[in-house]
Design brief:
- This protein is mostly helical and about 270 residues long.
- Helices cover about 70% and strands about 5% of the residues.
- The chain has a two-stranded antiparallel ribbon.
- Helix 3 runs antiparallel to helix 4 and helix 3 runs parallel beside helix 10.
- About 30% of the residues are buried.
Length: about 270
């Protein structure tokens, strides 16, 4: 029993094995995101997308009234907010106090901060992607945000259920599977919206090909984080080391999040 209790926490040697360069990586990525957030906020225009609500005009079964505008979302500033959240996460993990906490968690093969930040920032991003494709109903927007945040929290549950697993024990993939089911829901809504736009296109023009290319690109970028987790817990190649997977998340934060942000922001510049 004593041996089991000791193994519940990372040893000082395991904590020291977490490379200090991860602190530098977080500092650099955090600063890059901060610069991007400031740049996008500085060049943002007044492009906004509506969030609307439609309500019954009488008892159940009666016609639904016309849509009411609830809020016009300033897309540029929302993208900047997405990048600011990512910046805040990385900078806090590099800061005194934050680095020591982050390092102990990595030695214990878990990262609470990552999933906390993702649950908000990734949910903001998927809402922006939905808005850009024409989803505007407040019920759909709230549902998209909520189900995406749930998907991210399943990622945290995945780590919580497996981080103290011995190498000879099987991985519990149930949180990953449940998270994947939740995560596909917003993309189904987006696909329905694009399909509806195609059917209702004026003069048969349809949705431009480049829009499909952008959506596919956004889908791949958005879900690259799940691929990193699958490789990490599947112990594929260098992902057998949990810290290599952590490096993967940091690199994806720099590359995938930046590309997501600028692709969505580019829609505000289209005349």
């Amino acid at each position: 029993m004593a041996e089991t209790a000791v193994n519940l926490r990372p040893t000082p040697a395991e904590i020291e094995a977490v490379p200090v360069k991860l602190r530098t990586w977080n500092l650099v990525v955090g600063l890059v995101h901060l610069v991007q957030a400031i740049a996008i906020a500085a060049i943002s225009n007044d492009f906004k997308l509506p969030i609307t609500g439609q309500y019954l005009a009488g008892p159940p079964g009666t016609d639904i009234g016309p849509p009411d505008l609830i809020w016009s979302v300033p897309v540029g500033y929302a993208v900047a907010f997405f990048l600011f959240l990512a910046s805040l996460d990385h900078l806090l993990m590099a800061a005194p106090g934050g680095w020591e906490w982050y390092r102990r968690n990595l030695a214990d093969k878990i990262n609470y901060a990552r999933w906390t930040e993702y649950s908000i920032s990734a949910s903001v991003m998927i809402v922006l992607i939905a808005l850009v494709t024409g989803v505007s109903d407040v019920g759909a927007i709230v549902a998209i945000f909520g189900v995406n945040a749930s998907m991210i929290m399943f990622g945290l549950v995945m780590e919580m259920m497996n981080h103290r697993r011995r190498d000879d024990e099987p991985v519990n993939w149930m949180p990953f599977i449940c998270g994947s089911i939740a995560g596909i829901v917003p993309w189904i809504i987006i696909a329905i919206q694009i399909g509806g736009a195609e059917e209702n296109a004026v003069d048969g023009e349809g949705v431009p090909t480049f829009v499909y290319a952008i959506i596919v690109s956004l889908f791949i970028l958005f879900n690259s984080f799940a691929i990193n987790m699958a490789l990490q817990y599947g112990k594929i190649s260098r992902w057998r080391n949990y810290l290599f997977g952590e490096k993967g998340y940091i690199i994806l934060s720099l590359t995938a999040k930046s590309l997501l942000a600028w692709q969505v922001f580019a829609n505000t510049l289209i005349d």
